[in-house]
Amino acid sequence: METLLSHYARFLGLSDSWVVESVDPYIEERRVEIRQSHVGSGVFCPECGGACGLADHGDERRWRRLDTMQFTTELVARLPRSRCAEHGVKTIVPPWAGKHSRFTLFFEAFAVEVLQACRTVKAAAALLGLS
Ligand SMILES: [Zn+2]
Question: CA-based, 20 to 30 A from 102: which of 17, 35, 108, 112?
Fold first, then answer.
């Protein structure tokens, strides 16, 4: 029988290199926080795409995901850093977001659709819960 964490890993489409550590609801804040960890050993250099060893993991980062039911959902993770012989230590680009984005690719795609459907950016921002 699968656990809640493995269900979330499947919903998130995570590879074997990532595991969901926790899914915590913050009911008063109407927010869900999903924490996931990188458990893979090899990574790819974001500059040249070459297979590299794992240097370490960077600071904790957050990404806004599509909502879970009516709850704002955030993904929290420390990204692995590659150690490339040519480019040195580099933070990898996660499979769920752009290089410096604070939003997942799915959230960004949804936000574009909301922007196209709304008459104003202010109305779209209100629907998305963004400033
Ligand atoms: Zn490289």
Answer: 17
Amino acid 129: pLDDT: 86
Amino acid at position 12, single letter: L
How much distance in Å is there from the Cα of 14 to the middle of ligand 1?
24
Residues forming beta bridges with residue 80, ordered by sequence position = 57
State the pTM of this model: 0.87
- The answer to whether 57 and 43 have CB atoms below 8 angstroms apart is no
Q: How far is the CA of 99 from the centre of ligand 1 (A)?
A: 16
Alpha carbon of 47 to ligand 1 centroid (Å): 5
- H or E segment and range at residue 12: helix 4-12
The phi and psi torsions of 3 (rounded to 5 degrees) equal -90, 170
